[in-house]
Amino acid sequence: MTESAGNKNEDCHAANGVKPGRNGMVKNHHHHHHQYQKQEKVYHAACNGELYSRPFIESFEETPMLVAVLTYMGYGILTIFGYLRDFMREWKIEKCHIAREREEQKDFVPLYQDFENFYTRNLYMRIRDSWNRPICSVPGATFDLVERSSNDYNWTFEYTGRVVNDVINLGSYNYLGFAENTGACTTAAGEVTVKFGVGMASTRQEMGECLLVTVGFWEILGHKGCLILSDELNHASLVLGARLSGSTIRVFKHNNMQSLEKLLRDAIVHGQPRTHRPWKKILILVEGIYSMEGSIIRLPEVIALKKKYKAYLYLDEAHSIGALGPYGRGVVEYFGLDSKDVDVMMGTFTKSFGAAGGYIAGRKDLIDYLRTHSHSAIYATSMPLPVVEQIITSMKCIMGKDGTTIGGGGSVMLWGMFCAARVGPLIELHGRVNAKSESPSATCSSFPASMQDNAVCHTTKWVKQYLEAKNIEIMK
């Protein structure tokens, strides 16, 4: 179904007048202001089993050679001076501010690994004043910072009592601007707080709640004898969950279908190490959008390989839900694919919805298994109803079911409003701004179809009445 390597791929791209690179991606280099290079990657459906009918274009700005060389030189110099300062601290020449083991506890298992803190104490500490800045306002397009100063080279800070106002916020993932202190979401959440209180004060299995979990839960599904094929740029939470599962983990190159297919083929042919028994399960672990790179998963080809080799697919849509697709349903809708082809679909409410928590979508038997075996369902406190109301209200707004026209129907008004709120201060500061017209639509409709069908909620009468009052259907 998918032959991303070999002559077929070359023939497909040759029809478009370009030649693929080593990883099956088409590379077209351009110079920008004689300093930067932009790399464009075009993927065509003819090579993907006709799962996607449009060219797939991604543009990345390559790091200039001078910037890369100077960065590595800076790290090297700081590392050398770091070892020198550690030597001076060891001989009491320089005062040591870091946490260390007490002499009388040296026979115990160490709490602190000295070498693991090398980066923190020698590199990060030099620029610590630029990070972890305390804010004292709503984290909107701009916010207020609490001013602080340090007299010991950023080891400790003192607050000066002054506030830095209207600092431009470029570090938030409040993508659609719902995490504000005004608007329909805030009003609805406030009313629910007054009526129902802040917290549930019980676990999900005691009082009932929809299955809303955090990322990295794969440790309860995988086990010994299972194989996880993980993209090399997957988020740390996915990596941690995979490690906790006890499954064998093999990493394929980012968005490289040739690398993924080779691992799948080897897994089928050779089986488990030593015994060569077939793997109990083979799981492909990918993200919709890779937040640090801005890269979109080549989902049509991943699904084609998944079907060809009869593997399972786990899709983390933490950054793509609400930001991709005509209705914001994520990367599956962006490519026009069927959500049933994704076995496990995860998303978060912390970004586009401006709330907290997340969801897992899949078959009913999967959701039932998670409800009875997940640690968060058994031990963690249920999601507070004001947070639930924030999610419901923002989702209705995105779907266009709140009585307004700012969401739903493929409208990009939400995205435009958010961009105006974020870019406005930049325009005022710089006088001009460069923007591309090909921004993905940031409107979304609701949970993926598989979640609507199978994320069954086991609720008490009290929670059931609350959800029914909000026209939320409870599947049984």
Automatic annotation (TrEMBL):
<dbReference type="InterPro" id="IPR036397">
    <property type="entry name" value="RNaseH_sf"/>
</dbReference>
<feature type="domain" description="Aminotransferase class I/classII large">
    <location>
        <begin position="223"/>
        <end position="391"/>
    </location>
</feature>
<comment type="similarity">
    <text>Belongs to the class-II pyridoxal-phosphate-dependent aminotransferase family.</text>
</comment>
<dbReference type="InterPro" id="IPR015424">
    <property type="entry name" value="PyrdxlP-dep_Trfase"/>
</dbReference>
<dbReference type="InterPro" id="IPR001917">
    <property type="entry name" value="Aminotrans_II_pyridoxalP_BS"/>
</dbReference>
<dbReference type="GO" id="GO:0030170">
    <property type="term" value="F:pyridoxal phosphate binding"/>
</dbReference>
<dbReference type="GO" id="GO:0004758">
    <property type="term" value="F:serine C-palmitoyltransferase activity"/>
</dbReference>
<dbReference type="InterPro" id="IPR015421">
    <property type="entry name" value="PyrdxlP-dep_Trfase_major"/>
</dbReference>
<dbReference type="GO" id="GO:0046513">
    <property type="term" value="P:ceramide biosynthetic process"/>
</dbReference>
<feature type="region of interest" description="Disordered">
    <location>
        <begin position="1"/>
        <end position="32"/>
    </location>
</feature>
<dbReference type="Pfam" id="PF00155">
    <property type="entry name" value="Aminotran_1_2"/>
</dbReference>
<protein>
    <submittedName>
        <fullName>Serine palmitoyltransferase 2-like</fullName>
    </submittedName>
</protein>
<keyword id="KW-0663">Pyridoxal phosphate</keyword>
<dbReference type="GO" id="GO:0046512">
    <property type="term" value="P:sphingosine biosynthetic process"/>
</dbReference>
<keyword id="KW-0472">Membrane</keyword>
<feature type="transmembrane region" description="Helical">
    <location>
        <begin position="65"/>
        <end position="84"/>
    </location>
</feature>
<dbReference type="GO" id="GO:0003676">
    <property type="term" value="F:nucleic acid binding"/>
</dbReference>
<keyword id="KW-1133">Transmembrane helix</keyword>
<keyword id="KW-0812">Transmembrane</keyword>
<keyword id="KW-0012">Acyltransferase</keyword>
<dbReference type="GO" id="GO:0016020">
    <property type="term" value="C:membrane"/>
</dbReference>
<dbReference type="GO" id="GO:0017059">
    <property type="term" value="C:serine palmitoyltransferase complex"/>
</dbReference>
<dbReference type="InterPro" id="IPR004839">
    <property type="entry name" value="Aminotransferase_I/II_large"/>
</dbReference>
<dbReference type="InterPro" id="IPR050087">
    <property type="entry name" value="AON_synthase_class-II"/>
</dbReference>
<keyword id="KW-0808">Transferase</keyword>
